[in-house]
Amino acid sequence: MALLRRSSVIIAFVIRDLKNFYHLLVALLATIFFRFPSKELFVIGVTGTDGKTTVVHLIAHILKTAGKKVSMISTVSAPGFHVTTPDSWQLQKFLRNAVNQSVKYVVLEITSHGLDQHRVFGCHFQVGVITNVTHEHLDYHKTWDSYLRAKARLFKGVKWAVLNQDDGSYKPIVQLFKGSMIKSLTYGIKSKADLTLKNFPFKTDLLGEYNLYNCLAAISVAGILKIANKKIRKALLSFKPVKGRMEEINEGQNFKIFVDFAHTPNAFQQVLPTARKITRRDLIHVFGCTGNRDRSKRPVMGEISAKFSDKIILTHEDTYHEDLKKIIAEIEPGVKRGRKILGENYWKVYERRKAIEKAIELAEKGDTILVTGVGHQKTLNIGGCEVPWSDQKVVREILKRKK
Questions:
Q1: Are 99 and 42 in contact (CB under 8 A)?
Q2: What CATH code is assigned to 11-238?
Q3: In terms of pLDDT, which residue wins out, 208 or 79?
């Protein structure tokens, strides 16, 4: 049985490598066809488990505030694309259009899948940023080390590497490009990094310590580009939260509601304490886990939620082809470990709309509702079919009806 499992894993890796070789050939052709557009641009790549979307938007906002002409691709701002990192043909076309429009700077959000599948092959990155590398996508990469190495591919050929010195990925990443000609700039809050809150104080409306890290990452890039400190601070003050990232929905109710894309253990560790701090009374958390993805993180996320939340409602997220009840059943052990006594403070509501309705029904003055997992997305995948959906729209509809 063990031999059979080992053989199936080897076969899966062989198939994946063959597919990746195909992606590499397509990327090479696309780069040649569109005449190596990235060589005419200053390209900044941002990767990491969490925070990369906000960092991309922060960098672009700082550059625009400084009067620079900039384009970007991110999970939220991807012009006509349905994935964070588009395929190489779309990407090279986008870069060529940027050149044709006299754009100088391009900021790209890069996923580990995009790096592993050579989608960014042919992109001449000047600066590479890693926000953090934590538990995620192990269904694809199998091990954290493999996941880390995929992320580190971003630094191949870059001039500058911007690294989070407080993150557990920092030391192994430094070892991976030790001896190379890459210059590095570190940022952090708890360590003696090159850029810290002490040597670059600033103000921002963004909530949470994790957003201070995101700001420091963006400031590091702006520093490399010689943007004046005064302009950087001005941009940080005027920057508004990215859609679906601790996005507050206010229809005049006497409790707070936030929609956030958090869908990893690390994101839960960042977002839930932030929500806890701004809650005067009870924190009500509505969440689920994605189907056909890394199953090992489900109980971990349940336990983290139980640690910070007063009331939990488990519900539907993108199930794909997996059974919803099975997904929720795999989250539950973690919830039980974290909470110990469940009773009236824990519910399973299989329809997402009804789950949000339940949370709003439970909410009292001073409470905070946190709805996570979908964020900016406009659809839910149910049984392989994309169904129109918006957490923000549903929350507003329910609040208006209740009001």
A1: no
A2: 3.40.1190.10
A3: 208
